[in-house]
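User: Show me a protein chain along with its predicted structure.
Assistant: Here is one chain, sequence first, then structure tokens.
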Amino acid sequence: MLAQGDDYTSVQVTVVNNGDKEVSVNILYFEVTAADGTRKTAELGAAGDQIDTVTLAKGEKVTGAVTVKGKITAKTVYFKNGLLGKSYSTSVK
């Protein structure tokens, strides 16, 4: 977890394209689940080191912050490859 304050909580994520097809990364494709089970959508422009909007070719990766509104204990980060793509999740360390 990167930052935690009264207004926002940020986690650092890395998306790696291990497949053969391109992966579209956008802050709006992320959600964070709190320890209490509440799922929160990422806030656009809430962090200066926000993950970039990019298209990753096979073998490429991108790292940046995903920030949600509120002070939470982040448990899981969810990412969807595009608006209709496959969803992935990982635990917050």
